[in-house]
Write a structure and sequence with these properties.
about 290 residues, mainly alpha, about 5% strand, two-stranded antiparallel sheet, 9 helices, globular
């Protein structure tokens, strides 16, 4: 049931994103809002159905609540992103922040977290004595790696998102210097602010969500598909349909830190499953296996 619902929401989300380059003006803005709401429902719904109310509540508290708080602080003070203002095209605002903005943080925070969990999961060393110290060190290293991958996996998405939204006029920076090469209109402080908040968010998610948030299984396939779809479709959309080649390159480089290892890991796992299935297939009697 969890996978069917998640796959259905993902299919609707993908369709909405495919339609985005085909629209303009108010229709495009409305589709943007609808896409973010769908993404929020997909991620929070998956967390709830696959891991229960504690994980879903932690995700909403950290990403949605925390996202709104940091955006409100940012609009009011310019810290940590820089000074910026939202237009009125993204729907109702509270404290100067469109209500859909913290939903976007949540939409991508969950698949980024699960991607990092998948990439850093492994058997813990067994034993006692010095082996126990080794196990503790390995666990600490895995935790640091997980936070780092999840942080980059989320924050690098903004290398696609911000140039696209600024080009649409959904928000504007008062001082956009210094900027990354090819990405005028957006200060480097914006991306550093994303990194800072993503570290805080990912560090808080596991303690609040509990141990259920540090395992992955087949129920998470829609989320890994969402992450990889976001990566590859964003490269294509920016390079071909949105006339944003620089953000296509920056985003491709940034998100590749998490997306490419995830794609390779999933491909290897699929091959391993196929090999195991072949090994367990019974031989037909009367067939010469040496032929």
């Amino acid at each position: 049931m969890t996978r069917r619902i998640s796959w259905a929401l993902l299919a609707i989300l993908v369709l909405a994103q495919i339609c985005y380059p085909l629209t303009t003006g108010a229709t495009r803005a409305g589709l943007t809002v609808a896409t973010v709401v769908l993404g929020w429902l997909l991620s929070v719904g998956h967390a709830l159905l696959s891991r229960g109310p504690r994980v879903a509540a932690a995700l909403v508290a950290v990403a949605t609540g925390g996202g709104f708080a940091i955006e409100a602080i940012g609009v009011a003070t310019g810290v940590p992103f820089g000074s910026y203002d939202y237009s009125g095209e993204l729907g109702p605002k509270l404290a100067g922040v469109p209500l859909i903005i913290p939903l976007a943080w949540t939409w991508m925070a969950w698949p980024a977290w699960l991607a990092a969990v998948r990439l850093t999961s492994g058997a813990s060393p067994a034993g006692t004595g010095s082996a126990s110290a080794t196990s503790t060190g390995a666990t600490a290293g895995r935790w640091v790696g997980r936070i780092a991958l999840a942080t980059v996996g989320l924050a690098a998405w903004d290398l696609f998102l911000d140039p696209q939204m600024v080009a649409e006029g959904y928000w504007v920076w008062r001082d956009a210097t210094p900027a990354l090469p090819g990405l005028p209109g957006i200060p480097v402080s914006n991306y550093l602010g994303w990194l800072l908040f993503a570290v805080l968010m990912m560090s808080a998610l596991r303690p609040l969500a509990g141990p259920a948030a540090e395992r992955t299984d087949r129920r998470d396939h829609p989320m890994t598909a969402l992450y990889l779809w976001t990566y590859f479709s964003s490269i294509l959309a920016h390079a071909v349909f949105l006339d944003l080649p620089a953000s296509a390159l920056w985003g491709a480089a940034g998100m590749s830190v998490t997306a490419i290892p995830l794609a390779v890991t999933l491909r290897r796992a699929r091959r391993a499953r196929a090999t195991r299935q072949e090994d367990h297939q019974p031989h037909r009697p009367g067939v010469d296996a040496t032929r």
